[in-house]
Amino acid sequence: MTGRLQGKVVVVTGASRGLGYRVCESFRDEGAQVGLLARESNELTAAVAALGPSAFALPADVSDPSAVRRAFAAVESRGKGLHVLVNNAAVGCPQPIAEADDALLQREIGVNLLGPIYCMREAARLMRHTGGDIVNVSSESVRAPYPFLAVYAATKSALETLSEGLRAELRSVGIRVSVLRSGRLAESGFNRDWSPQVRQRHREQAQIQGFYAASGEPISPRVAADMIVELVCMPRAAHGSLIELRPA
User: Fold this and answer.
1) Measuring CA to CA, which residue among 133, 136, 135, 138 is closest to residue 176?
2) Catalytic amino acids?
3) For residue 176, how far is the Cα from the chain centroid?
4) pLDDT tens for residues 187-241?
5) Which of 10, 51, 159, 243 has the greatest CB tally within 10 Å of its CB?
6) Which residue windows are coiled coil (predicted)?
7) What are φ and ψ of residue 112, in 5° steps?
8) DSSP designation for 220
9) What angle do CA 157, 135, 148 make, to 5 degrees?
10) Cβ atoms of residues 24 and 14 within 8 Å
11) What are the tens digits of pLDDT across the range 35-71?
């Protein structure tokens, strides 16, 4: 706890659990005020309570542009600006493309790609006079898409391309756009909503094709969270455009 971000305001999406919650912890420990943006739930309420008085809830579905606007309007109304946005929210809906469900496809693309776009649009507006940092969380799957998760990998690949474009677009107003490309994380909760049948099919194919062996052992989410903080705390003269975090 060095207080490097004392008084700064941070918004983290997908913040009620997993990596998002650990990111909130890491920013709080550096003195930041942290807005937890996630769908309204008992989990979100409990996460804010656990983080203490420096945390505040921003209940919203990132795939809903109106909800995102309301959430960032709430941030603006606090009168303390916005200094950091971490786009962490993501869903993986494993399904063979020949069996792909319309609603699941729309949900996956809505949360993983449109969600960050909506959030970055609002964040850029709030940061345009003061500068700031946007960190987009990507996945090792952009290099090696897992079986039944090709759409998920495609959304992350698109997010990386978007980040590079926005880096050029926003640098003149002092907004840095970075990507953390993460390997498998322990206790991420990524697949907790999958049906047992889908989970089994996915695991069998990933195991047979060597994806788990190539990925290595899962990384602690706190390691990834601390890396995001370090990206933000980097001197303004520098910029970490893409950091890939993998097991040793």
Assistant:
1) 133
2) 152
3) 16
4) 666 666 767 777 777 777 777 788 777 788 899 999 999 999 999 999 999 999 9
5) 10
6) none
7) -80, -25
8) P
9) 30
10) no
11) 999 999 999 999 999 999 999 999 999 999 999 999 9
CA 110-111-117 angle, to 5 degrees, is: 80
pTM over 0.90: yes
Residue 117, both tokens: 């776009």
Report the amino acid identity of residue 218.
Answer: P
| Residue carrying the six token digits 């942290």 | 34
Note the Cα 112 to chain centre separation in Å: 9
Q: Strands (DSSP E) along the chain, which ranges? A: 9-13, 33-38, 55-59, 84-87, 132-139, 175-182, 242-245
- Which residue bears the tokens 């052992």? 217
List 205's β-bridge partners, or say none.
none
- d(C-alpha 182, C-alpha 179), whole Å: 9
